[in-house]
Amino acid sequence: MTLDAYVPPRSGLWSGRVDDENVREALRWHQVVERLDLRQPPTPGGGGFCFIGYGCDRGVERNLGRPGAARGPDAIRGQLGNLPVGFSDTVSLLDGGDISGVGGVERAQEALAAAVARIVEQGYFPVVLGGGHDLAFGHWLGLERTVGRRRRLGVLSFDAHFDLRPATAGANSGTSFSQIAEHCRADGGELRYLCIGVQRSANTVRLFHRAEELGVGWVLARDISEPRLPEVEARIDSHLEGLDAVYVTVCADVMSSAFAPGVSAPQPLGLTPETVLHLLKHALASGKVVSFDVAEVSPRFDSDNNTAKVAAIFVYALVEALLSPEQRIR
Questions:
Q1: DSSP of 167-193, one letter per residue?
Q2: Beta partners for residue 293, in sequence order
Q3: pTM over 0.85
Q4: Cβ distance 147 to 290 under 8 Å?
Q5: Rounded distance, CA 256 to CA 195, Å?
Q6: Contact assessment for residue 279 and residue 236, using Cβ atoms and an 8 Å cutoff
Q7: pLDDT tens digit string along 103-152?
């Protein structure tokens, strides 16, 4: 595993209000986040969450999407900093730096795999901030090399796209799950993948056939409404039942462009953030989620940082949902 596309954490990225520096209940995330250089020898710690940015949108460019997501990690960090601390000092928030896209998509994917593996090996929960959705293959690969050695690993994705396009011309933001499927097949395994929020207008008929061939499950965006949420929850439960560990990935374009305009491929009829948040919390309640990312946040096209703000709220909800009662402060 190589970290040659790795950029160590930088100072000055985390900021926000300061209410009271001496009272834990008054602190915000920017006051407690620490930097972790993943190039250093592992020092097992655990008990917290480690952020790693995927500052690459080369895959978006290859996929003929709108570039700009390379700046997504810093935009999300900018919104995370002001969030309130709701946990005790036994829970760590760490910034593990970034993966650069300068050397190309494949190099970035391999570097992300190495970074995620090191985060897991040190006992932290990986949170990847993207960046193009080609990050999903690197993220999954890092988990497969660690968590997947011991447990049945699967994917729950919130996305308008299957991302099952062939990678014959090179990896891009639409090939991650084809890459995962090929990797699984080479190892004699199978892709365990459920995609929530799929748009008929955003996927060719061949991609639906490909999903069927691979045994991929999906729920169309048009079939997701508040009265039907129990049905979607049941689909998620059925998917999780056969898994020991779950990697959850949220592509920001699963949401309507009214709420998430800053994405590589906007969807005017996507889901609401409330719907995604509800279903995310449902999955987290299973106790099987071992890693998380949010992808395709593109500040270049955002409005008043709304997309980055929504991404930050998803991360905040994740942390809050995974705290034990003993770790909470009220």
A1: -TT---TT-HHHHHHHHHHHTT----E
A2: 128, 249
A3: yes
A4: yes
A5: 16
A6: yes
A7: 999 999 999 999 999 999 999 999 999 999 999 999 999 999 999 877 89
